[in-house]
Amino acid sequence: MFCTKCGANVAEGAVFCNACGTPAGGAGVERGTSSPVVVAPAAYVAAPVVPSFAPGVTYAGFWLRFVAHVIDSAIFAVIFGAFAVIALLALGGGAVLDSLKNAQNSGDAFPLLIMGWFLVFIPVAIVITWLYYAKMESSAHQGTLGKIALGLIVTDMEGRRITFGRASGRFFAKMISGMIPLAIGYIMAGFTEKKQALHDMIASCLVLRKL
């Protein structure tokens, strides 16, 4: 069908017009006929991408996304904190602390212990975080626990569920957003037309809010 605002061709299953961003929830008009032919919304013709939300979704702004990020960060803090405590207890808490104290006093082994910890912990943390975001955002939920709590979903540019590969690309693109000073890569979600952060643009994704 065609966009009722700009006349661009809108793909079936699309939530927004790819040219002007107008919601495609209303009926379109089929061109090339002497009299207008009403075409039913794609969400009701084919298997809908988001059947419950297609008529009522909007772009999610910066602050909603920030709160969702805080919720996810709190969840990870609890998980990794519990993991650290369990690991310490499994190794014998008192013995480990005594070893670290003795190593620190010797001035030789302590830096190696710290370096070894980070060489193991940081890669494991990155892998767990990547799988969490990519799996959740490409699942039927289309979002992490923080996004689910606020009614946010991650889609492609036409409002469809994204693949695991695209969700992974979006996750690693966040590293590029994070390299820009003053968090501008993330703050872009507050003033771009479709409320996209830099990593959303790189992965061709949208973050939508259910109304």
How many helix segments? 8
What is the number of domains?
2
For the record, give the distance between the C-alpha atoms at the N and C termini, rounded to a whole number: 24 Å
Helix content: 40-55%
Average per-residue pLDDT, rounded, comes to: 78
How are the strands of the largest sheet arranged? 3-5-4
The structure class reads: mainly alpha
Shape: elongated
Compact overview of the structure:
By secondary structure, the protein is mainly alpha-helical. It has two domains: 1-51, no CATH class; 58-210, no CATH class. The protein has helices at residues 42-45, 62-90, 93-106, 109-137, 145-150, 164-179, 184-187, 198-203, and strands at residues 28-29, 38-39, 57-59, 152-156, 205-210.
Give keywords.
2 domains, 51% helix, mainly alpha, three-stranded antiparallel sheet, 211 residues, single chain
Structural features, described:
The protein is mainly alpha-helical and 211 residues long. The protein has 2 domains: 1-51, no CATH class; 58-210, no CATH class. The protein is 51% helix and 9% strand. The protein contains 8 helices and 5 strands; from the N terminus they run ββαβααααβαααβ. It has helices at residues 42-45, 62-90, 93-106, 109-137, 145-150, 164-179, 184-187, 198-203, and strands at 28-29, 38-39, 57-59, 152-156, 205-210. The strands form 2 sheets. It has a 3-stranded antiparallel β-sheet with strand order 3-5-4. A two-stranded antiparallel ribbon has the order 1-2. A hairpin with an 8-residue loop joins β1 (28-29) and β2 (38-39). α4 (109-137) packs across α6 (164-179). The model is unreliable at 26-53 (pLDDT under 50).
